[in-house]
Specification:
Blueprint (H helix, E strand, L loop, with lengths): L1 E5 L20 E2 L2 E2 H10 L5 E6 L3 H7 L4 E2 L2 E7 L5 H12 L6 E5 L2 E3 L3 H11 L3 E7 L7 E2 L12 E2 L10 E9 L15 H11 L3 E5 L4 E3 L3 H12 L11 E2 L2 E3 L4 E2 L4 E3 L2 E2 L4 E2 L4 E3 L2 E2 L4 E2 L4 E3 L2 E2 L4 E2 L4 E2 L4 E2 L4 E2 L4 E2 L4 E2 L4
Parallel strand pairs: 1-4, 1-7, 4-6, 9-13, 16-19, 17-20, 18-21, 19-22, 20-23, 21-24, 22-25, 23-26, 24-27, 25-28, 26-29, 27-30, 28-31
Antiparallel strand pairs: 2-3, 5-6, 7-12, 8-14, 9-12, 10-11, 15-16
């Protein structure tokens, strides 16, 4: 089966990390988000994928120049201008010559969804499109999808107030589509699948949905990104952490961690250095970071090639962008973003 991956967004909520890399190229315990998404798809028979690119497309093409990600053959469809979700689906699917049932996946969602069961359900209903649903406590940030008992969608309600949401089942960002759906998407036009195409399908009784309560996480915020890393480290995801593990942490083989440093619940990526007496707690340390003696980092994301000065304190939830230098004995906590656009 073929899949369209929507990976063209700018990842604004994860800035400054995403000034230099799309969020799907950010590491989740040493493995890019894209590779983790593709590994999950490959387990359900996806052999080919087309990446719908917009923002920093060269980051993908340079990282995977041979057209393969996690064993899946990939092609790249670079949008000439932002086309929104439906426009991106149409552009990428036509670019790849898709003419059979295919998947559409939001590339910033990590999930253990049973894609095989979703495809089987879709085919059994004769649907034009089928949405994977997931229960959440607060549906107000998502598209809410009430259904009939047979799974036929009653309405597609985008980001309703929490108290007005008719269900807590939300659009989980994975769709099964028939190629007929492309007839609804004008070429070269900016158009939303959630606000335009899905309501059309509802009106025609061609949209179905299936709930699944397996692991699911939208990684778009710093807190969610940290959670994604913790979930791998603590075994809440089927995809485990790469070896070696050190207690509740992953430390890359070429990282240098002083024997007196304390590392807990964290990922220390390749080439990073943690000096004597430093503490790294529930944090993600990108490649090439230097953490000075006695520094303390708690619930933070430290981007690549950052230098954290000695005796500094970075508390929840600091996000430090690529190449920044934190002066010795600095102290930051809260929603702190340090880093500027190139």
């Amino acid at each position: 089966m073929k899949a369209v991956l929507l990976v063209g967004g700018e990842g604004t909520r994860l800035r400054p990390l995403t000034y230099f890399a799309p969020k799907q190229m950010l590491p989740i315990v040493g493995v890019t988000m894209l590779e983790r998404v593709m590994t999950a798809l490959a387990a359900h028979g996806v052999t080919e994928a087309v990446l719908s690119l917009g923002y920093l497309p060269q980051a993908f093409t340079q990282a995977f120049p041979h057209g393969e990600v996690a064993g899946v053959s990939v092609t790249y469809a670079v949008e000439p201008s932002p086309l929104d979700t439906a426009g991106a689906i149409g552009f990428a699917a036509r670019h790849a010559g898709i003419d059979d049932t295919f998947l559409v996946v939001n590339g910033d969602v990590l999930t253990d969804l049973n894609v095989t069961a979703l495809v089987d359900f879709h085919r059994s209903r004769g649907a034009e499109a089928t949405i994977a649903l997931h229960p959440v406590e607060d549906p107000s940030r998502f598209g809410v999808v009430p259904t009939h008992p047979d799974g036929r969608v009653i309405a597609f309600i985008e980001k309703p107030p929490r108290e007005e949401a008719p269900t807590n089942l939300i659009n989980a960002g994975t769709y099964v589509c028939e190629p007929d759906i492309l007839d609804r998407i004008p070429e070269g036009q900016k158009i939303s699948v959630e606000r335009v195409i899905f309501p059309q399908l509802v009106a025609d009784s061609k949209l179905y949905a299936l709930a699944d309560d397996t692991y699911w996480l939208d990684t778009g915020t710093p807190a969610a990104y940290l959670q994604a890393n913790r979930d791998v480290l603590e075994g809440r995801r089927r995809q485990g952490a790469p070896s070696p593990l050190s207690g509740s942490s992953w430390i890359a083989t070429d990282a240098q961690v002083d024997a007196t440093a304390v590392i807990s619940g964290s990922a220390i990526d390749r080439g990073s250095v943690v000096a004597a007496g430093a503490q790294v707690i529930n944090s993600v340390i990108f490649p090439g970071v230097t953490i000075g003696p006695g520094a303390r980092i708690v619930d933070c994301i430290i981007g690549p090639d950052v230098v954290v000065g000695e005796q500094s304190y970075l508390g929840p939830t600091c996000v430090i962008g690529r190449g920044e230098k934190i002066s010795p004995r600095s102290s930051y906590e809260g929603d702190v973003r340090i880093g500027v656009a190139p």
